[in-house]
TrEMBL record:
Its EC number is 2.6.1.16. Residues 286-425, 457-598 form the SIS domain. This is Glutamine--fructose-6-phosphate aminotransferase [isomerizing]. The active site is at C2 (nucleophile), K603 (for fru-6p isomerization activity). Residues 2-217 form the Glutamine amidotransferase type-2 domain. It comes from Candidatus Kerfeldbacteria bacterium CG_4_10_14_0_8_um_filter_42_10.
Length: 608
């Protein structure tokens, strides 16, 4: 969703900010804006649509100012437009803000400020912040920001500039991430580390309720009540090249090709083949505490939720612990039962998903220990959980989650092993599982070798308007993931069902123009799945099967087959998902969709 980048230093800010905005594009946005402060004057430009529009609008400006900030907006209050784009100014045009998040009490504040004569120019909730700071400003910008923030309800990550403070940038956070980048004689502000890593690896993650006042040579972090803070400086491990396309046409394709590494990195140092064991260090639980877990609840959204659902099968089977997977967005509304033996996991690529965060807070409120399974290091979920594990998939830039999904599945398999071995799982099963897990990255690589064939297949199916995705057991969540991926990047309608559910209604839709993806590996459900495939065939349904290498029978029943290598039943999802990711990608490209930034979507969904 919205992105912020700010700079104060010795170099002209304009190009640093534009470059930063481009790095934030992946978050999803509908308009963009930039402001620099020069010799007591603000220079501001805002445009609807892509950052190129903004770039074109300021091409000849050549501002030399060394203080500025920029923003990408994803509309919540007020439609996407130049006027509603950030930055927003006060009445005098002296003060300017950018804001991520939602100000819930903005209408009340706006009315009060309008009564005092403030003129609003946009329909946004954010603009109220600029006017509130203007109202409280008496020469001390920090004090005015503090006073104003104490009146806000909702969430914010903000940055503020005032013409009377030409080398000061103020940033603050409550519920929406803000990172400060540190470098000699220059400092940065951003909503995540991606625009920072090409300048510096040393960052401070602001905590909720903290304010940073930064100049080219200093930074001062304090609370909203003006208590000084000594923040930890973190070193970002990501390399800038990891966040670049490296010759691929799209980030999504690059990230699908990184799925073998995602599985590898998630396992690194965490499985012990000779002992058939796994150990996720960051869980902050000793073996006795883990043995006492009687029930696991997993909260997540979107793809992360589907990974959790596949993990549910793994944990229940290997660790014998009942698992419930809950839509994070619904968790709070059903008064969930959390008792002593319940352990909660929150799974999130970004670590910033507002619904997941809210579910996590609800679980904590009820006394649960909440562990995070997160990709983005230093993200809110990672910091606010009681422990957890990083998946180490590296930056995921494409809006559609792919390699993070594989990383999440791998961690869930490792968790199943770790819990299982602490309970009843025999040594031999543990060893077999570790041995097989270790082969997964290579097996994914062998699936990726079929990329060309899958591309051709996707192109030949690009004219269809509807698809079913069908799977059984742990492959039902994979069907859900396949359908979600196709919908979000190609805008083609797709629905997923458990294989056997089709005959309970949806089969009425089957004809030659309604193809089905059937996930039918040679697992313990194979025969049952084949009966369902026969039912579709009997109704002249068109089918693409994802099947196990060597299964020659299947090609007699379906129109197309994509083969995946053989593995243990509960690890099959790590393989079957890969062709579905590739199919969605290639079909979207064939339809000329904006694959990395699908319409209406945002990478990090920071509103509930
Ligand atoms: C699907 C997708 C979304 C996310 C969901 C959760 O491709 O990207 O469904 O999976 O918004 O996001 P995170 O994992 O960042 O919490």
């Amino acid at each position: 969703m919205c992105g912020i980048v700010g700079y104060v230093g010795k170099r002209p800010a304009q190009s640093i900010l534009l470059d930063g905005l481009k790095k934030l594009e992946y978050r999803g946005y509908d308009s963009a804006g930039i402001v620099v402060c020069d010799k007591g004057q603000l220079h501001l430009e805002k445009t609807l649509g892509k950052i190129e529009n903004l770039e074109r609008a300021i091409k000849n400006k050549n501002w030399q100012s060394t203080l500025g900030m920029a923003h990408t907006r994803w509309a919540t209050h007020g439609k996407p437009s130049d006027r509603n784009a950030h930055p927003h100014t006060d009445c005098k045009g002296e003060l300017v803000i950018v804001h991520n998040g939602i100000i819930e009490n903005y209408q009340k504040l706006k009315q009060a400020l309008q009564k005092k004569g403030h003129q609003f120019k946009s329909e946004t909730d954010s603009e109220v912040i600029a006017h509130l700071i203007e109202e409280n400003y008496r020469g001390d910008l920090g004090a005015a920001v503090r006073q104003s923030l104490s009146r806000l309800e909702g969430t914010y990550g903000i940055a503020v500039i005032h013409v009377k403070h030409p080398d000061v940038l103020i940033a603050a956070r409550k519920g929406s991430p803000v990172v400060i980048g540190l470098k000699e004689n220059e400092h940065f502000v951003a909503s995540d580390v991606t625009p920072l890593v090409s300048h510096t690896k040393d960052v401070i993650y602001l905590e909720d309720g903290e304010i940073a006042e930064i100049t080219p040579s200093s930074y001062h972090i304090s609370t909203i009540n003006n208590e000084k803070r000594e923040p930890a400086i973190n070193h970002v491990e990501w390399e800038i090249a990891e966040a670049e396309k490296q010759g691929y046409d799209h980030y999504m394709l690059k990230e699908i090709f990184e799925e073998p590494d995602a599985a590898r990195n998630a396992m690194l140092g965490r499985v012990i083949p000779e002992e058939g064991l796994a150990h996720l260090g960051g869980l902050n639980m000793n073996d006795d505490e883990m043995r006492e877990v009687k029930r696991i609840v997993i909260v997540a959204c979107g793809s992360a939720l589907y990974a959790a659902r596949a993990g549910e099968y793994m944990i229940e089977k290997y660790a014998d612990i009942p698992v419930e997977v809950e839509y994070a967005s619904e968790f709070r509304y059903r008064d969930p039962v959390i008792d002593q033996g319940t352990l909660v996991f929150a799974i999130s690529q970004s670590g910033e998903t507002a619904d997941t965060l809210a579910a996590m807070k609800e679980a904590k409120r009820k006394g649960a220990r909440v562990l995070g399974i997160v990709n983005v290091v230093g993200s809110t979920i990672a910091r606010e959980s009681d422990g957890g594990t990083y998946i180490h998939a590296g930056p995921e830039i494409g809006v559609a989650s792919t390699k993070a999904f594989t990383g999440q599945l791998t961690i869930l398999a490792i968790l199943a092993l770790q819990f299982g071995r602490l309970k009843n799982m025999p040594f031999s099963t543990g060893q077999k599982l570790v041995k097989e897990l270790k082969t997964i990255p290579q097996k994914i690589e062998s699936i990726l070798e079929q990329d060309k064939a899958i591309k051709q297949l996707a192109e030949s199916y690009a004219q269809y308007k509807n698809f079913f995705f069908l799977g059984r057991g742990a492959n039902y969540p994979i069907a859900l993931e396949g359908a979600l991926k196709l919908k979000e990047v190609s805008y083609v309608h797709a629905e997923a069902y458990p294989m056997a559910e089709l005959k309970h209604g949806p089969i009425a839709l089957i004809d030659r123009n309604f193809p089905s993806f059937v996930i039918v590996p040679k697992d313990s459900y194979y025969e049952k799945n084949i009966s369902n495939v026969q039912e579709i065939k009997a109704r002249d349904g068109r089918m693409i099967a994802v099947a196990t290498k060597g299964d020659s029978n299947i090609s007699n029943l379906v129109d197309e087959v994509i083969y995946v290598p053989k593995t243990l039943d509960l690890l099959i999802p790590l393989l079957t998902v890969v062709p579905l990711h590739l199919f969605a990608y290639h079909l979207a490209v064939a339809l000329k969709r904006d694959v990395d930034k699908p319409r209406n979507l945002a990478k990090s969904v920071t509103v509930e």
